[in-house]
Amino acid sequence: MRILITNDDGINAPGLKVLSDIAAELAGPSGEVWTVAPAFEQSGVAHCISYSHPTMIAQLDERTFAAEGSPADCVLAGLHDVLKNNAPDLVLSGVNRGNNSAENALYSGTLGGAMEAALQGLPAIALSQYYGPANAQADNPFEASAKHGAATVRAILAADPAHAGGYRRFYNVNFPPVPAADVAGTTVAPQGLRRDTRFSVEATHSPSGRRFLWVRGGDQRAATDSGTDADMNLKGWITVTPMLADLTDHAALNSLKDAFS
């Protein structure tokens, strides 16, 4: 198996090493793992692509490349430059430092990389490691994803329904904020919503007096509906959420059609 990996935390992020080990286990001794990751951190860029300016890419090792762009840029670089004559069998993105459950999924560059791979017609999975009191200060905060990552990806690939045309499915996997031994299991869960917390900005001033705004995240332990991804993560479960790039609210189509008929 040939696997392309990327992330949004950058080429030197510890989660990328975790993902490389997961990919190596999946690929096997006769497989290949190729890395095309951002040269610098790209957290929060979602599915951004560098449409209006070029992306510099540098080869760091035999199968490792750094690109000055977003995770989606890196996937494009991997598919159409680095591996243009040898398409990968699978694209993995992560392992993100922090969760991409609930509304975080909409901001996530990690998911942006997986989404781009799916739009290019390839199987794709995004993996993220929730941080919390039980693992944030641990020697290895990624222990849960490192221990259970390969098995989770194998299970997804084995259960993935055949692609029936249209937008290709991709998967959002979030590992809970607990040590590997305390993981309760794996469950399929819908995307949740932290209703009482949102991203915001905080103003500050530089020494020269110029005003800047820092983006602040919300409380990552805020409640979501029972059984949704963040809820189950906080209960110790690995969550698997199937996703599509189709943003249509299909449930509202008929009522809107009636309104405009």
From TrEMBL:
Q: Which reaction does it catalyse?
A: a ribonucleoside 5'-phosphate + H2O = a ribonucleoside + phosphate
- Residues that hold a divalent metal cation according to the record: D8, D9, S43, N96
Q: Name one GO cellular component term.
A: cytoplasm
Which GO molecular function terms does the record list?
3'-nucleotidase activity; 5'-nucleotidase activity; exopolyphosphatase activity; metal ion binding; nucleotide binding
Q: Which InterPro entries match?
A: SurE, SurE-like_Pase/nucleotidase, SurE-like_sf
Q: Does the keyword Coiled coil apply?
A: no
Cofactor(s) this protein cannot do without: a divalent metal cation
Q: Which UniProt keywords apply?
A: Cytoplasm, Hydrolase, Metal-binding, Nucleotide-binding
Its localization reads: Cytoplasm
What enzyme class is recorded for this protein?
hydrolase
What detail does the entry give on cofactor binding?
Binds 1 divalent metal cation per subunit.
UniProt record similarity statement: Belongs to the SurE nucleotidase family.
Q: What this chain does, per the record?
A: Nucleotidase that shows phosphatase activity on nucleoside 5'-monophosphates.
Output the HAMAP family linked to this UniProt entry.
Answer: SurE (MF_00060)
Instruction: Write the protein's name.
Output: 5'-nucleotidase SurE
From what organism does this protein derive?
Mameliella alba
